[in-house]
């Protein structure tokens, strides 16, 4: 059976998320709504369109592309009307400057492990491995468990960043496949 | 080859230096200057710039013309010659996944084949008096004077920078420091003894923590174990961070450690960027 989940980033060469060089996989969706969240793009379980005004050069590609008129320019200032947005992602596809980007990609556990395994030479040399973060990885516990099981079958060191917001039974089930917990 | 012979002849006239003869083996014994074939090793460096752009160009043609059949070859040639008037095709070329630097098997294979072809072609020739030509994968200041370079099929418009040294092109999608170095390990670097540089930028914070130093050490060791032999470092100062704040384009790969996590600097909130600049200035 294939497990699919929504990922908002896979960050390579992380060195603050556990020992050695690590790859951190950020899983979307969190049941909490904390004011101090350091990854707010991970709260929502579905896709988000992210806009970084500092990267926008005003090329108007998004204005031309969007079928719903979400992107407009008034006095040279880019205005993104999110109420009309259907999250189709077309604008992010045509934004070559990276100001608009699609956050959230459906990936299978196999695809994730394949990308994580690319950095195996670095893990072997530094004692690194995989870190799961979010969002709240335990909100998608079946998916998280599957990734961890596959990582362990490949002999990877695993770390999990979690708020601990889940049933005790979930934590018990997942515990054997996690080498290091970060309770944050 | 005649061009390179001319270049060498020019150096023979312009760069006669007794000082060089003093510091190069065999010149003093023979009583000859390096330009008079006095040195033990008589090499002439040949700079090749833009290996990453070349690999991506061939990869783009292979994928879009022959595999995905998005366009015909003559169409892509025309678009490239005319500096990509068609935005849609331009974006397909520019944003294509799996280019050199993403550690994809296809671009890695091209990296090996093309670097081997260039290296062997150069090594097959010698200049007059048996002077060996030694190729390198960079050109001095090649990243500064860009206006003369025409558009390339990888979705690079006229005037944009070519890839520098052994490093991939800056706008490649889906690239990380680790994947970049793994891709570069597939270049046949043994054929380029005059140099295959790559510049890695690290934030000062990265080298201040023990974890960060161990990670950087691991990154370098892994690269060298995988075939790399030339690497340069750039530790970011507060001044450089300020420049990146005002001009995010070109600073996409600037990785910085925040409080307890690392992130790309230009993606951070303005306030956080300012805080990091201040902290960098204060050395903490």
- Total helices of chain B: the number is 12
Helix and strand sequence of chain A: EEEHEEHEEHHEHEHE
Let me know the largest β-sheet of chain A: 6 strands, mixed
Strands ordered across the widest β-sheet of chain B: 1-2
Which parts of chain A are unreliable, with pLDDT below 50 for 5 consecutive residues or more?
Answer: none
Helix content of chain A: 25-40%
Number of strands of chain B: 6
From the N-terminal CA to the C-terminal CA of chain A, the straight-line distance is: 31 Å
Strand order of the largest sheet of chain A: 7-1-2-8-9-10
* Rough outline of chain A: elongated
- Indicate the proportion of strand residues of chain B: 5-15%
C-alpha Rg of chain B (nearest Å): 22 Å
Overall pLDDT score of chain A? 92
Structure, explained:
The complex is a heterodimer of chains A (184) and B (284). Chain A is α/β, with parallel strands linked by helices. Chain A has 6 helices and 10 strands. A 6-stranded mixed beta sheet of chain A has the order 7-1-2-8-9-10. A two-stranded antiparallel sheet of chain A has the order 3-6. In chain A, helix 3 crosses helix 5 (141-153). Chain A is elongated. In chain B, 44% of the residues lie in helices and 9% in strands. Chain B contains 12 helices and 6 strands. Chain B starts with a helix and ends with a helix. The interface between A and B is medium-sized, with 29 and 36 residues.
What is the gist of this entry?
Chain A is an alpha/beta fold and 184 residues long.
Structural key phrases:
heterodimer; A: alpha/beta; 6-stranded mixed sheet; two-stranded antiparallel sheet; B: 284 residues; two-stranded parallel ribbon; 44% helix; globular
Topology:
The complex is a heterodimer of chains A (184) and B (284).
Chain A: E1 4-14, E2 22-27, E3 48-51, H1 61-65, E4 71-74, E5 77-80, H2 90-94, E6 100-103, E7 105-108, H3 109-117, H4 120-126, E8 129-134, H5 141-153, E9 157-162, H6 168-174, E10 180-183
Parallel strand pairs in A: 2-8, 8-9, 9-10
Antiparallel strand pairs in A: 1-2, 1-7, 3-6, 4-5
Chain B: H1 2-14, H2 18-23, H3 27-30, E1 43-47, H4 51-67, H5 73-81, H6 87-94, H7 105-123, E2 132-136, H8 177-184, E3 199-203, H9 204-208, H10 210-225, E4 232-236, H11 238-246, E5 255-257, E6 262-264, H12 270-281
Parallel strand pairs in B: 1-2, 3-4
Antiparallel strand pairs in B: 5-6
């Amino acid at each position: 059976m294939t497990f699919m989940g929504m990922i908002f980033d896979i960050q390579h060469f992380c060195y603050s998320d556990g020992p050695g060089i690590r790859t951190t996989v950020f899983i979307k969706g969190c049941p909490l709504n904390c004011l101090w969240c350091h990854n707010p793009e991970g709260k929502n379980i579905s896709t988000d369109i992210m806009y970084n005004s500092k990267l926008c050069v005003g090329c108007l590609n998004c204005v031309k592309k969007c079928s719903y008129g979400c992107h407009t320019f008034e006095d040279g200032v880019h205005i993104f009307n999110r109420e009309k947005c259907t999250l189709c992602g077309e604008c992010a596809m045509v934004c070559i400057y990276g100001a608009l980007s699609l956050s959230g990609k459906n990936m299978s556990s196999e695809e994730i492990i394949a990308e994580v395994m690319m950095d195996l030479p670095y893990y072997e040399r530094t004692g690194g491995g995989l870190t799961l973060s979010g969002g709240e990885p335990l909100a998608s516990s079946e998916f998280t468990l599957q990734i961890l099981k596959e990582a362990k079958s490949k002999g990877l060191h695993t770390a999990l960043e979690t708020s601990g917001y889940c049933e005790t039974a979930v934590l018990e089930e997942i515990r054997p496949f996690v080498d290091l917990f970060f309770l944050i | 080859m005649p061009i390179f012979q001319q270049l060498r002849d020019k150096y023979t006239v312009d760069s006669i230096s007794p000082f060089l003869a003093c510091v190069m083996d065999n010149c003093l014994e023979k009583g000859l200057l390096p330009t008079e074939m006095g040195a033990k090793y008589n090499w002439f460096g040949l700079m090749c710039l833009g290996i990453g752009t070349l690999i991506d160009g061939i990869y783009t043609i292979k994928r879009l013309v022959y595999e995905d059949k998005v366009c015909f070859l003559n169409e892509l040639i025309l678009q490239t010659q005319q500096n990509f008037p068609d935005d849609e095709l331009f974006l397909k070329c520019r944003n294509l996944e799996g280019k050199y630097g993403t550690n994809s098997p296809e671009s890695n294979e091209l990296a090996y084949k093309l670097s081997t072809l260039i290296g062997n072609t150069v090594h097959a020739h010698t200049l007059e008096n048996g002077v060996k030509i030694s190729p390198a994968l960079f050109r001095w200041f090649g990243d500064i004077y860009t206006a003369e370079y025409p558009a390339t099929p990888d979705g690079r418009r006229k005037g944009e920078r070519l890839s520098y040294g052994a490093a991939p092109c800056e706008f490649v999608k889906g690239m990380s420091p680790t994947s970049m170095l793994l891709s570069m390990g597939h270049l046949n670097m043994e054929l380029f003894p005059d140099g295959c540089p790559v510049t890695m930028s690290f934030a000062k914070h990265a080298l201040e923590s023990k974890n960060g130093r161990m990670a950087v050490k691991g990154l370098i060791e892994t690269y060298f174990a995988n075939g790399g032999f030339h690497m340069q470092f750039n530790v970011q100062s507060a001044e450089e961070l300020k420049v990146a704040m005002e001009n995010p384009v070109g600073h996409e790969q600037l990785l910085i450690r925040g409080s307890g996590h690392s992130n790309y600097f230009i993606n951070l909130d303005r306030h956080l960027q300012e805080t990091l600049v201040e902290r960098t200035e204060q050395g903490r």
